[in-house]
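During the no-cost extension, the postdoctoral fellow (Dr. R.K.) reprocessed legacy sequence entries with the updated structure-token encoder. One reprocessed record is reproduced below for audit purposes.
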Amino acid sequence: MDQKTLCFLTLSELSSALRKREITSVEATRAVLDRIKALNPKLRAYLHVMDASALRQAEAADKEIAAGKYRGPLHGVPVAVKDLCWTKGVPTTCASKVLRDFKPEMNSTVVDRFEAAGAVMLGKLHLTEFAMAWYHPEIPTPHNPWGETLWPGASSSGSGAAVAAGLCYAAIGTDTGGSIRFPSAANGIVGMKPTYGRVSRHGVFPLGESLDHIGPMTRSVADAALVLAAIAGRDPRDDTSLDAPLDDYAAAATVRGGAFSIRVGFDEDYLKRASDDVAAAITNAVRDLENVGAKIIKVKVPDVEACLENWTTLCAAEAAAGHAKTFPSRADDYGRGFRSFLELGVQVRGQDYANAHMVRERFAARFNALFSQVDAIACPSMPTATTPIDAIPPEASAFTGPNPLLAFTGPFNMSRNPTLSLPGGDGKGSVPPSLQLVGRHLGEATLFRLGSAYEHATEWHKQRPTI
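Re-encoded structure tokens follow.
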């Protein structure tokens, strides 16, 4: 098998081959490391590559698998994490000068769970400074593998680029207002934003603690299910993590029964916030869901305008709280964009935050009431299939009013629902439009079942950038 074919196997395909010992973890890890060496100088998806330790982990995985000590579907699989996940003894910079010398003394829970599953850690992935909208001006930005003029998708952009370019088999992203879904959409891959608290936030540097979600980014729905199964669950080190049983995500992502009996809500008026081509693709995707057995039900998504106006109030205030030890004392070490966001945050009054919180509570209650009628809601992940790389305004003042970019993402951070983003149409040689499926709290298994049925009935997830 040539290097490119090996690197573009899905995680599920590689996992099966590793278990059957048709491929070794060392072979897969070397192939991906060689591809990183060749392409990362251009794509800049990784901030730090852990090649020596990755090969040691791969050798250990091969020995364990050969000895019959198989740990599960991630055993021997090369993965990577966003560079705000603590990794013991390894630089964890959040792509900022503020933490350029920080090497944690412990792992984040998500890294611990990868290690317990036997995964091979390739390195730390690029992101916007402290996971907001802007890159630090002194740290070269990542590029979208579909084209250097295209936006790579905000904060988890290194994760999106690495998965899309075959530089890992799965990556961890975080999502406070869209940062799993934006880079998944912008890079043509699959992203799962789980229910708030389904994955521990311990050891993951926060942007907005009440809005932050952590989840997998992969090349297939089944892969996302396997990764979520490994990283989800209660963690006593994170009091906000949920103490709720885990569903069998891997079983849900098989296509037995297709999407039969799943009720999918669709709001044509909400879709008007998207471009014509994205709206057409999502309308076609909903028809495809119906063809694989889903029952389509017309719903009315509550007005998201107040969410879009108040998301910034919540996030900026919480970001300022998270940076109280270094801002404003080290203001000059922050880039212009994120510094302006912190400046905005320290100006938020208590009554402003309280009002924004009640906007969140009212929207969440109205939105979650829809799940008495449906099991999932279909909409776009982004208003457009692609966005120019220079589309993000340079300062936070642009986020103080309703932000149309957040129309299909921010509301579901406010409501804390799980979402699944996946390619939902023909990109015609460019990035495909992205379909977003939104579920009830702890409804990830339903989303995996629905997304997998859609994926098996279409070819959109097989589109790859030409690098």
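The domain at 3-462 is CATH 3.90.1300.10 (Amidase signature (AS) enzymes). The radius of gyration is 20 Å. The remaining legacy entries will be reprocessed before the final report is submitted.
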